[in-house]
Amino acid sequence: MENKEMQRCGWCGTDPLYVDYHDNEWGKEVTSDEKMFEFLVLESAQAGLSWITILRRRKNYRKAFAGFDAEKVANFTPEDVERLMLDAGIIRNRKKIESTITNAQHFLKIQDEFGSFCNYLKSFLPNGKPIINHWKTLEEIPASTEISDKISKDMKKRGFKFFGSTICYAHLQAVGYINDHLINCMCRKNL
Description:
Oligomer: single chain
Low-confidence stretches: 1-5
Number of helices: 10
Structural class: mainly alpha
Largest sheet: 2 strands, parallel
């Protein structure tokens, strides 16, 4: 039997890539807009798919989308869209590819308005601080909340696509603005 110190949230299973992601990234507060944009691109690409599907293509996404440089992606052209439609290393969904480009443009506008995208997201959080939940089981974790509803609604008004409340909640979890590691998970020791 696995000792208490080595228990993980059950969703990550035993896939080494998933375990590494769980242990070293998920739920850890992101403070850089570069990393925030990376997760925004990946979460939007995930819409309708499993996270492991996107995680396995992460290196390909990094290469395809200019190292997740929001300024470069915001300037992608229709020719870039056609190039990406031929890239078997990413999800070749034209609407998702096009939305990644327009989302990058909106991301930059938010940076200008709030000083950083991180500041923008934190403006929705109580006292601007990450929320630490105390779930015992995966079944307790919601798919969305009032906060993810508000953020996704605001982002939709600003022109973002593929970022509904459920994707928004997953994004907040990934970037550590909502920490949903279960109470018996080894990753809670640092909280």
